[in-house]
Design goal:
By secondary structure, the chain is mainly beta. 7% of the residues lie in helices and 54% in strands. It contains one helix and 32 strands. It has a four-stranded antiparallel sheet, with no helix packed on it. The longest helix is centred in the first third of the chain and has 25 residues.
Length: 367
């Protein structure tokens, strides 16, 4: 038996189908609609040529011999007159300053907790939850002095750096009780970089020769150390025992930013080599997190990219792009500034970043 559908029935079916399509399209638009976002800019009355660093959710900048601390709304919290040609390093709770042979340690409120003249010019320093350290000396004999936050000397390493230049060092562990150092052996016929780990005030826990490739980053990531050079990334524990059989190949890529999370794998963001310093020319990104290795193609060339929380952001002159770490699709949001954004300065730990147009410095709340 054959059934015929009348003309009126066909019209009804077509109308119902159209209604279903409209309802489905509306549901999809609601389900996948990006969060409402209005770019929230605060202009800082500070010169873009200053040296800026983040201290947790606060902003530090150094201008004309004075270090200023600002809130994320631009209000001045405190200032410290240290003089010209100083260097400084900030954790979330302390600021370490050095100038010539003098060292100064400030708490988050700008109060001086320690200062001294160490009798030898300081090259650079670092501060953690428990300790601070400064490097002195030259390429023939570097000297590393470690003290607690009250200024009591805990450790000094000089014999380990005889005929070596300390390139960098940092504290790691739950309370910063361990330390890593990178040194360049200046006596070798070929360049050789060596990484050491120490338990502060106790003992050397490991040493590995990294060869002649330039090692430029060491990150504490989920209880391990990620050691990155221009060719590979090795993963070590605190004793410098390899935690992977084979390294991650990063040749042709350069670390751009990172975001670490307690108790889980952090995020390492890479850009193609040469694009980091080439403004408005970043078009592809690579994210490494644990065993994941992800690639992102940007909708247009951008001048900066970074990780905040568990999101990836990229900045062009008048647009900010956002993608979740596990999604390669970017959502765009307009940035309406008078002169267009030309550079990324730094990020705070509360979902805000500092950007500049070359004339002003802005604080932006991220979408």
């Amino acid at each position: 038996m054959k059934f015929k559908i009348g003309k009126r029935s066909r019209i009804v079916l077509i109308v119902l189908a159209l209604l279903l399509v409209i309802i489905l399209a509306y549901w999809i638009s609601i389900a996948f609609k990006p969060e409402a976002y209005q770019a929230d800019f605060r202009i800082l009355n500070t010169p873009p040529t200053s040296v800026y660093k983040a201290m947790g959710d606060k902003i530090l900048y150094y201008q004309d011999g004075v270090i200023y601390c600002l809130s994320d709304t631009g209000a001045t919290r405190w200032s410290y007159d240290v003089g010209e040609n100083a260097g400084f390093y900030a954790s979330d709770t302390h600021v370490l300053i050095w100038r010539g042979s003098s060292v100064f340690l400030l708490d988050a409120n700008g109060n001086s907790t320690y200062s001294d003249n160490l009798g030898q010019d300081i090259v650079f320093g670092r501060v953690s939850k428990q300790y601070f350290g400064v490097v002195m000396g030259n390429e023939r004999k570097s000297r590393l002095v470690i003290s607690d936050l009250k200024g009591t000397q805990i450790d000094e390493e000089s014999d380990a750096f005889a005929n070596a230049l300390i390139l960098d060092f940092g504290f790691f562990g739950g309370s910063g009780e361990y330390m890593w150092t990178l040194k360049l052996d200046t006596d070798s016929t070929a360049a050789n970089t060596v990484i050491n780990t120490f338990e502060v005030g106790k003992m050397n826990t490991g040493e590995v020769s990294l060869g002649n490739y330039i090692t430029y980053a060491v990150l504490y990531d989920n209880n391990n150390l990620d050691v990155i050079n221009t060719r590979r990334m090795w993963i070590y524990d605190f004793r410098l025992s390899k935690q992977v059989k084979d390294p991650v190949l990063v040749y042709g890529w350069e670390l751009l930013d990172s975001q670490m999370h307690s108790g889980e794998d952090g995020y390492k963001l890479f850009v193609q080599a040469g694009q980091r310093s080439d403004s408005a020319n970043i078009n592809e990104l690579r994210m490494i997190s644990g065993g994941k290795d992800m690639r992102y193609t940007l909708p247009t060339a951008v001048s900066a990219a970074f990780v905040s929380g568990k999101n990836l952001y990229a900045i062009s002159s008048n647009t900010i792009y956002k993608a979740s770490i596990n999604d390669t699709t970017f959502v765009s949001y307009p940035l309406n500034t008078p002169n267009g954004i030309s550079g990324y300065v730094c990020k705070l730990n509360n979902g805000k970043v500092l950007l500049t147009d070359g004339i002003d410095v802005y604080v932006l709340r991220l979408p």
